[in-house]
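Chapter review: from sequence to fold.
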Amino acid sequence: MRRRHVLARELAIRTRGQHVIATRAFIPRQRAGLARVRGAHLSLRGPAFAHTSR
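The token string follows.
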């Protein structure tokens, strides 16, 4: 739970803003956003974001 804001921001950065999850929204809205991301079949494999931001 505590990392969801950071993970949502990483998702937004890696997808160049295509997938933004509103982490302060109610749970049904967050789940709908996550379902859209899962349905997109994204290829986000690669180094961890901490390594790419250096």
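Two observations follow directly from the output. Helices lie at 4-14, 27-39, 49-52. The CA atoms of residues 5 and 17 lie 15 Å apart.
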